[in-house]
């Protein structure tokens, strides 16, 4: 069955079963807490929470169904294998009190086994989790068994508990359906979510178990399902990869073996995704969705060399994509000229960047000089070792980002070693310097900044980032108290929402250590110690044992901020530009919401403060 046939069957099946068929919403969501649309349920969030009444808007219907354009950045580095994508189409049916588990599972079973004539190999259900008060989903298990599906496996939070998306929202246990693809592997095709709860925080906070935030039962019990069209097509068309389904084979006129090359897959995914993002009005830029689009286009250009020979192939390819997908997504047709234009502008910008960057590159490394580079865009050699400083320099000055340099390295004929860790370090160093510069510019009591992005817009926000800033000093000292003095700051970043602190440490922290660090900070908050400042010549300041992240960035004389009654016996001392609270009690409750690795030997903690 063609992908067009699958879409049609799906929407007709649910229409027949009294569902309203709703068009895909834009890839740019209404919900400002989400960057791009990642799921079909997003356009229905207000029906789930009860802010809007579905029965009133769609009289006589028991639910809705759609084929939703979706985009997930989380998988971007996975693209190139058999089944990961950034952009994909998601078939879904949704209920907002109209029906629940029994009907949802029965519809899915009927659609897969009758309409698609596929066998369900096995299904998963939620095993339950006491800490969040959600029991094992025995109800779904019994429903599956009554329908004749006997292989029911239980899984945990990571696999079968969905949501919330964004900073809060509906969530709940799920049940997933597995079918065989053309390679004989069982793949997950359909995720059926039972939206039973509302969580007043993000998924990160739910996982961390932030005290004070609890799952609450939703008044309207909802169903949110999502089935990847590309994956279902793999099962229906018996292909080994998604790239051999008609969804890619048709528009990309990929020769069968072309579909199996990593570069071909990256190109196909990124170009298709770029066309859809452009059609919804995203334009290449330096932040948010624009940055994602820029990255996709630039990677597609680099990867195109191996597959199509020259970048001139792009307009032709874009036309093919629009021809193929325009039947279903009409916006592609109306935006056709705009898409071509925006793409080619970005291509030219990139070409310029590349030209200038490469010229410098060859100047720096004469042994790899430009005889290979005869004005053709991407034919050149790169040295076998590229230092972190150099990667950073080319990133910063010429926009040759790490992933681009990596892509180039893979396309080139040399095996290249890139010092990624060194690059990270350079990057962090730079961020700190630019923040110190900004603090100076704002007269010391000014605004804490993200690189290039103003984060505190008013007095209230300034108060919040100031609390987070002092909390960051306390976090560093608490880490040293608990883990030892080898903890060393590698970077930090503070926004109105949270502080992010990177530090050198060789392993993952245990749950007990995280708790101990958090408790240590909160103890010092309770003591309501004064935060004070001494201005000292740098050489003397160093002798106090005060910590500094990067000595050179501070002016002489330097501010030493310390927590305690006097500098000598202070609990925490750091070189710093401020601003800070006057007493630690102002901080409120400090919480660690995440601990993770960012490169080898570097850990990252995200913390928040609550009133
Ligand atoms: N929201 C769920 C998902 O994206 C089901 O649609 O998997």
Question: How would you explain this protein's 3D organization?
Answer:
Strands 1, 2, 3, 4, 5, 6, 7, 8 and 9 form a 9-stranded mixed β-sheet that branches. Strands 14-15-20-19 form a 4-stranded antiparallel β-sheet. A 3-stranded antiparallel β-sheet has the order 16-17-18. It folds into 3 domains: 3-240, BirA Bifunctional Protein, domain 2; 248-433, no CATH class; 448-610, Threonyl-tRNA Synthetase, Chain A, domain 2 (2-Layer Sandwich), CATH 3.30.980. The chain is globular and about 80 Å long. It is 40% helix and 21% strand. It starts with a helix and ends with a strand. By secondary structure, it is an alpha+beta fold. It binds serine. Residues 39-41, 92, 162, 191, 193, 224-226 line the site of serine.
Proportion of residues in extended strands: 15-25%
Number of strands: 20
Shape: globular
CATH superfamily of the largest domain: Bira Bifunctional Protein, Domain 2
According to CATH, the fold-level topology of the largest domain is BirA Bifunctional Protein, domain 2
Task: Report the uncertain regions.
Answer: 367-381, 437-454
Number of domains: 3
CATH architecture type of the largest domain: 2-Layer Sandwich
Radius of gyration: 27 Å
Cofactors and ligands present?
serine
CATH class of the largest domain: Alpha Beta
CA-CA gap between termini: 57 Å
Structural class, by secondary structure, is: alpha+beta
Task: Summarize the topology.
Layout (H helix, E strand, L loop, with lengths): L2 H14 L2 E3 L23 H5 L4 H4 L5 E9 L15 E10 L4 H15 L6 E5 L11 H9 L5 E4 L1 H4 E2 L6 E12 L5 E14 L3 H6 L7 E13 H8 L9 H7 L9 H18 L8 H21 L5 H12 L5 H4 L1 H29 L20 E2 L1 H11 L3 H10 L5 E2 L1 H22 L7 E2 L2 E2 L4 H25 L4 E7 L4 E6 L6 H16 L4 E6 L1 H6 L14 E6 L8 E4 L13 E9 L4 E9 L1
Parallel strand pairs: 1-2, 4-5, 10-11
Antiparallel strand pairs: 2-3, 3-9, 4-7, 6-7, 7-8, 8-9, 12-13, 14-15, 15-20, 16-17, 17-18, 19-20
Helix pairs in contact: 4-5, 10-11, 10-14, 11-14, 11-16, 12-14, 15-17, 18-19
The structure holds serine (SER).
The site of serine has 10 residues, from strand 8 and strand 9.
């Amino acid at each position: 069955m063609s992908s067009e046939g699958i879409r049609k069957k799906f929407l007709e099946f649910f229409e027949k079963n009294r569902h309203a068929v709703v068009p895909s919403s834009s890839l740019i969501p209404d919900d400002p807490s989400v960057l791009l649309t990642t799921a079909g349920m997003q356009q229905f969030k207000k029906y789930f929470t009860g802010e809007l009444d579905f029965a009133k808007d769609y009289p006589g219907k028991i639910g809705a169904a759609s084929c939703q354009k979706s985009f997930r950045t989380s998988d971007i580095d996975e693209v190139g294998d058999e089944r990961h994508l950034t952009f994909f189409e998601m078939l879904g049916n949704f209920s907002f009190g109209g029906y629940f588990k029994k009907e949802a599972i029965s519809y899915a079973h009927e659609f897969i086994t009758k309409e698609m004539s596929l066998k369900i190999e096995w299904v998963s259900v939620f095993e339950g989790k006491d800490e969040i008060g959600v029991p094992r989903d025995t109800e779904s298990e019994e429903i599956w068994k009554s329908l004749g599906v006997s292989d029911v496996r239980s899984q945990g939070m990571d696999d079968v508990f969905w949501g919330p998306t964004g900073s809060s929202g509906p969530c709940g246990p799920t049940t997933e359906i597995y079918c065989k693809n053309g390679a004989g592997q069982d793949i997950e095709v359909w995720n059926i979510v039972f939206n039973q709860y509302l969580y007043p925080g993000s998924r990160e906070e739910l996982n961390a178990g932030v005290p004070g935030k609890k799952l609450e039962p939703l008044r309207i019990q909802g169903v949110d399902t999502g089935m990847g069209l590309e994956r279902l097509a793999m099962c229906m068309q018996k292909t080994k990869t998604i790239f051999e389904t008609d969804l890619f084979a048709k528009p990309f006129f990929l020769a069968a073996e072309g579909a199996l090359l990593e570069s071909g897959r990256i190109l196909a995914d990124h170009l298709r995704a770029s066309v859809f993002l452009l059609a919804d009005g995203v334009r290449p830029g330096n932040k948010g969705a624009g940055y994602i689009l820029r990255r996709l286009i630039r990677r597609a250009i680099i990867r195109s060399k191996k597959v199509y020979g020259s970048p001139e192939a792009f307009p032709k390819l874009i036309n093919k994509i629009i021809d193929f997908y325009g039947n279903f997504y009409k916006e592609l047709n109306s935006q056709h000229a705009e898409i071509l234009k925006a793409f080619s502008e970005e291509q030219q910008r990139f070409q310029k960047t590349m030209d200038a960057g490469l010229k410098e590159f060859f100047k720096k490394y004469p042994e790899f000089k430009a005889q290979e580079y005869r004005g053709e865009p991407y034919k050149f050699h790169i040295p076998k070792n590229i230092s972190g400083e150099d990667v950073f320099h080319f990133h910063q000055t010429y926009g040759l980002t790490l992933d681009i340099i990596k892509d180039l390295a893979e396309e080139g004929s040399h095996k290249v070693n890139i010092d990624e860790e060194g690059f990270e370090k350079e990057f962090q160093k730079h961020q700190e310097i630019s923040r110190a510069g900004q603090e100076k510019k704002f007269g010391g009591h000014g605004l804490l900044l993200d690189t290039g992005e103003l984060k505190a817009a008013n007095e209230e926000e300034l108060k919040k980032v100031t609390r987070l800033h002092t909390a960051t000093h306390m976090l560093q000292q608490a880490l040293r108290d608990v883990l030892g003095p080898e903890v060393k700051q590698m970077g930090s970043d503070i926004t109105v929402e949270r502080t992010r602190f990177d530090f050198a440490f060789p392993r993952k922290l245990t749950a007990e250590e995280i708790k101990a660090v958090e408790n240590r900070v909160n103890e010092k908050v309770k003591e309501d110690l004064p935060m004070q400042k001494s201005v000292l010549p740098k050489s003397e300041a160093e002798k106090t044992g005060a910590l500094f992240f990067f000595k050179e960035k501070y002016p002489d004389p330097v501010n030493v901020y310390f927590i305690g009654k006097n500098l000598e016996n202070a609990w925490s001392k750091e070189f710093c530009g401020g601003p800070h609270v006057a007493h630690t009690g102002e901080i409120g409750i400090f919480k660690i919401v995440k601990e993770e690795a960012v490169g080898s030997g570097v850990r990252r903690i995200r913390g928040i403060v609550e009133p």
